[in-house]
Structure formats: C-alpha cells, structure tokens
Amino acid sequence: MNKVRSHSAVPDHTLTRPRIALTTFFALDGFVFAGWVVRIPAIKHQTNASAGALGMALLGVSAGAVITMTLTGRLCRRYGSHPVTVVCAVLLSLSVALPPLTHSVWTLGAVLLVFGAAYGGINVAFNSAAVDLVAGLRRPVMPTFHAAFSLGGMTGAGLGAIVAGHVSPAQHLLGLTVIGLAVTAVAGRTLLRVQPPGPVQAARPAEGSGAVDGPGPAEGAGPVGRERAGGSAVRRAGGRTRGVVLVLGLVALCTAYGEGAMADWGALHFEQDLGASPGAAAVGYSCFALAMTVGRLSGTALLERLGRTRTVVAGGATAAAGMLLGALAPSVWAALLGFAVTGLGLANLFPVAVERAGALAGPSGVATASTLGYGGMLLGPPAIGFMADCFSLPTALTSVAALAAVAATIGFVTRRALHD
Fold first, then answer.
1. Are 192 and 86 in contact (CB under 8 A)?
2. Which of 112, 272, 305, 415 could in theory staple to 309 by disulfide, Cβ–Cβ 3.0 to 4.6 A?
3. What is the tens place of the pLDDT at every residue in 74-127?
4. How far apart are CA 177 and CA 130, in angstroms?
C-alpha cells in the first residue's frame, strides 16, 4: 500500500495545534541539550576537572535520565503525558543554567543528575504524547517529531559555536533558560488545553479500508483514555506484549549505540585513521547528523509507502552497509559518503521502535524502549574505546554495522508485531 491512512473520527485539523506544540517541544529538547554540550569544555576548565573526573560527572546526566524514565511512564499514566511534558520542559530549562554555577566536580555531577532527570523525563513524556497523536492522525508521523529534535540540536550547536567566543557559559546557558521557559509558556499552553486522542476519537479502521502496516486496534486510544475505558489492551496481552516491547527496545538500543559511537568517535576516526584535518573531521559527523535529519523528515512518506517492517529492515541494512564503508574506506570522501548513508539508514529506526512500543504498552512501553535506547547510547562510546584498544578504531566501528544488521534482523523476525 502507498498510504497508511484510514477513516478516523478525528479530523486532521483538530490535531494540528497539538502537533505543532509537540514538535516545538522536541525541537526545544534538542536545542537545549546541544547548547549544554558545546559548553562542556568551558565547564571542564571552570571546575578544574581531569578528563576522568569530568567523565564521572557527566554520568550524572545518564544516571538521572535512566532513573527518571520509568518513573515518568507512571506519571504519564496517572496525570497524562501533556502536563508531564510541560513540567519536565520547565525543569529542563531551569536546570540547564546550573552547571556554570558549580566550581567542583561533585557539585557539577549533582546538578547534572537533575538536568539528566529532566531530560529523561521529557523524552518519555513527549514521546508518549506523540504516540497518542500518531494514533489519532492514523498516519506514521513519528519521524517528523524526531526530525525536529535533530534540527533543534543542530541549531543549538550552531548557535553555541557562534556565541562561545563572545559570552560566558553562565550567560549562554541562562539565555537557554529564558528561551526554554518562553517556548514552554507558549507551546505548553496549547498542550494543557487539549486531551490526547482517546478511544472514541481515534476509531479503528473500517474493514476493507486498506490500512496496512499502520497502527493496530490497540493504538487508537491514548494511554489515559485506555485506562479510563478500563482493561487496556496491554493488560490483556500480558507477557507477550512485554516481550515485544523489550524486543523493540533492542532495536532502539542498536540505533542509539550507533548514534553515540558516531558522535564520540567519528571525528577521531577521520583524523587518526584517514589523516583528515580537524575541520574535515568535524564534517564527518555533520554529514551523519544532516543525513539523519533528512531521513527523518522523509520518514512519514517512507513509512506510508513501505510500512514499518520494510522501513526497519531496509534502514538497518542500509546503515550496516554505510558503516562498513565509513569504517573501512581508505579515503576521506568515501568515508564521508559512508557516514551519510549510515545516518539515512538509522534515521527512522528509533522513532518506529518507540512509536510501536508506546502503541502496545502506553507510556510504560515508551519508557522501556527509551531506557534501552539510552542504554545503547551509553554503551556505544566505551564499547568502541575498549574494542579500539584491543584491535583498531576502524574495526571497532564495524560494531555499529553489526548492530544495525541486528536491528534489521529483529525487524524481519518480529514483522507480525510491527504490522499488527
């Protein structure tokens, strides 16, 4: 089928404003996080931290995110994903201003724990809200939200690079706080005024309507609506659903592993193994990030044409081929091409995994898939470093290709779960 759309009781125009608001929150998340990342070197100098001590402090972001993700799933079930998204956006905006106020590694780690908690919380909350919106629209628009995150990150990093030499970290990050609170006040107002699409709004497609590989019957209800209706599909499915959600989380892990590895080791690969200049090395990751953004912007059309299963299988296979070229190519230009192809391949795997996990298990499914995905992002950089010490960096980077192939295999093996 060329189109994954069916008859729905919700006109698209009624969901336009909440869709714009959610897209804004995705972009804000990427913008704020990237703004913090580009000031890490200055914060390191300010706290007189060694590389090892800084690494320990940065674990606060990861620890806070992982701890909060499961809790946020429960809060979304109880209070709704929209209010939780707004609260977490406020906390994220406020906490990003704290790192420049610290003067020791211990206090830096403590405030990063708070920042990471807000970051993990908003990721679960707005992904849960996006899952409900996808069900209401009956269109696979989840990749567009993640494209907004990528665009926000690129904008935040670019702005950070421009202002880094002119303003202090405290001024820069305080500016992010002001921007974040202003955006939250405007976009949050829209979210708080609307309820996620419920079971009556997002109706099951009529027989013979031709909805193939789209949201299944259980996806029509938002998590709050499902619970109010009593006896959710998640409870009826029991262990099978939990197993499928865990498998989808593994797809997210394989994808995020590649993202983390490319971000931390891509530039070094170009400089150390290919003899590229620092500027050319930076272009390597830029090619990857830009290709991933383009892939996500076109993700809805791709899903409507191919469906979830073929998108995951083709994406994983494409990423595996691209990373083999990027890791093993003897020239800079061939490696740049490989990095770009890898970005295109990985672009829609995480959005598909999170959307399907949320459709099957509500906010808990989103929390599980996101936690596993975030674990992959944490696992990637140290795993690549260990393998690089034992073998070589190009060899280590082929593990990204291996896990992309695993994601493609999972997509094929679980094609019924992705389709149903």
1. yes
2. 415
3. 999 899 999 999 999 999 999 999 999 998 999 999 999 999 999 999 999 999
4. 24
Note every long-range contact of 325-328, with CB atoms under 8 Å and residues 24 or more positions apart, other chains counting: 326/397, 327/269, 327/394, 327/395, 327/397, 327/398, 327/400, 327/401, 328/394, 328/398
Looking up tokens 């500016």, which residue turns up?
A: 175
CA nearest 256: which of 378, 398, 141, 342? 378
Give the separation between CA 349 and CA 85, rounded to whole angstroms: 23
Which tens digits make up the pLDDT trace of 332-373?
999 999 999 999 999 999 999 999 999 899 898 999 998 898
CA 87/CA 85 separation, integer angstroms: 6
Is residue 140 within 8 Å of 127, Cβ to Cβ? no
Sequence-distant (6+) residues with CB within 8 A of 230 are none
pLDDT at 45 over 90: no
Instruction: Kindly state the tokens that stand for 254.
Output: 């394989």
Specify the DSSP class assigned to residue 231: S
Q: Is 114 helix (H, G, I), strand (E, B) or coil?
A: helix
